[in-house]
C-alpha cells in the first residue's frame, strides 16, 4: 500500500470506508477488483459528485498508480479523499467570504483592527493583543491598518492551518 493510500484510509471513518466500498463494488460489474472510466463517473455521481469526462480522465491519470487504465479500490479511496478535501476547502472559502461580510460592519470592503480582533476571537482562539497586531500587520498590504478581503482570507486560512 502506498503512502497516499495509507493516508486516504486514515482520513476516512469506518462508516465512510464501508460506504465507498459498497459503491465501488456496485460498479465493479465483472468483480475483477477495478472500475473503468465510465463506471467511475457513475460511482461519483451516486456519491454526489458531477465530474465531466475530462475530469474523469484527469482523475484516472492522477490516481492510476499501476498504469492499468482502471482504478482499483485503494486508488479509488485516494481519489475520493482528494475530492472530499477539495470540497471542504471550497466550503471553507465560502465561510470566510460570509465571515468577511458579517464583520465588515460598515460595508467598506475593509476590516479594521477592531473588526479583525472580533473575527479572531469568534474562532475561539486564545490570542493576545500583540498577536492580533502582528497578524494584522502581516496581512496589511499597504500599511493602512486595515485588511482587504484577500488579506483577511489569508490571515484566517493561516489561523486554520495552525490549529
Automatic annotation (TrEMBL):
Gene Ontology terms, MF aspect: calcium ion binding
Xref: Gene3D superfamilies: EF-hand
The organism's place on the tree of life at top rank: Eukaryota
Stored InterPro entries: CALM/Myosin/TropC-like, EF-hand-dom_pair, EF_Hand_1_Ca_BS, EF_hand_dom
Keywords: Calcium, Metal-binding, Muscle protein, Repeat
Cellular component annotations (GO), alphabetically ordered: myosin II complex
Gene Ontology terms: biological process: response to activity
PROSITE patterns: EF_HAND_1, EF_HAND_2
Residue ranges constituting the EF-hand domain according to the UniProt record: 15-50, 51-86, 91-126, 127-162
PANTHER family per record: MYOSIN LIGHT CHAIN 1, 3, TROPONIN C2, FAST SKELETAL TYPE
Family: Belongs to the troponin C family.
Listed name of the protein: Troponin C, skeletal muscle
Naturally occurring in which organism (per UniProt): Sander lucioperca (Pike-perch)
Amino acid at each position: 500500500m502506498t503512502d497516499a493510500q495509507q493516508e486516504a484510509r486514515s482520513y476516512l471513518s469506518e462508516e465512510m470506508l464501508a460506504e465507498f466500498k459498497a459503491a465501488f463494488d456496485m460498479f465493479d460489474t465483472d468483480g475483477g477488483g477495478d472500475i473503468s472510466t465510465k463506471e467511475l463517473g457513475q460511482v461519483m455521481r451516486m456519491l454526489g459528485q458531477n465530474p465531466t469526462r475530462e475530469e474523469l480522465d484527469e482523475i484516472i491519470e492522477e490516481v492510476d498508480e499501476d498504469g492499468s487504465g482502471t482504478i482499483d479500490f485503494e486508488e479509488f479511496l485516494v481519489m475520493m479523499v482528494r475530492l472530499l478535501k477539495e470540497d471542504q476547502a471550497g466550503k471553507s472559502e465560502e465561510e470566510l467570504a460570509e465571515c468577511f461580510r458579517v464583520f465588515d460592519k460598515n460595508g467598506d470592503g475593509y476590516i479594521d483592527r477592531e473588526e479583525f480582533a472580533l473575527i479572531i476571537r469568534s474562532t475561539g482562539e486564545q490570542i493576545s493583543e500583540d498577536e492580533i497586531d502582528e497578524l494584522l500587520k502581516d496581512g496589511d498590504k499597504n500599511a493602512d491598518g486595515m485588511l482587504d478581503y484577500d488579506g483577511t482570507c489569508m490571515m484566517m486560512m493561516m489561523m486554520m492551518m495552525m490549529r
